[in-house]
Amino acid sequence: MSKSFWETIPGKNIPSSLELYPVIHSYLQDDYKILDIGCGFGKISLELASLGYLVTGIDINPEAVKLSKAASKSPELDTETEGRAEFNVGNASYLPFHRSSFDFAVMQAFLTSVPDPQERARIIQEAFRVLKPEGYLYLVDFGQNWHLKIYRKRYLQDFPVTKEEGSFFALNPETGETEFIAHHFSEKELVFLLVDCGFEIDYFRVEELKTRTGNKINGFVIMAKKL
Question: What is the domain-level CATH number for residue 216?
Fold first, then answer.
């Protein structure tokens, strides 16, 4: 099987345009073990580790994980962060962790990069499996922005190939070549993806998110509880 775009892209080029939203701090507790799914080069994992949490990051890109490990040992980090973050290469569809291993999971601008609806469901099911009962999934992702001409055009022109509303070809900003299929969610679609996998929506808010190319578009910030 050939490797995906996300396995082969240089780790430093993995998009990481979003910051943590303040609501996450209302849910985190001091002794929580956190899983960062699709951690990229570790920005969010290391931020959470710097706040005192034990964090495990996982990503399909070996180079990104290598960068994360190096950053976690950087002399620039404070001593309290050291040893609080670990990183693994792995597939979010088949997480290499036991059931009920984590108190909290983070999935930030990750599902947008998964073009297959069935795989997105498997990823949410896996997050559900590795969370403890009443654990939380913090999920942030991009919404469909039909009111913006640039996205309306891309949704429509790429639909004959993507076969899914809200999916479109993400282009290399320098070369204009297609890199991957991105997906923007409707509110209903994302809510039912979570609910059908056993979660209950505890917090839901529309926020302005920044894409990797700097566009500001509407998206969703969600706290979902494992029932």
Answer: 3.40.50.150
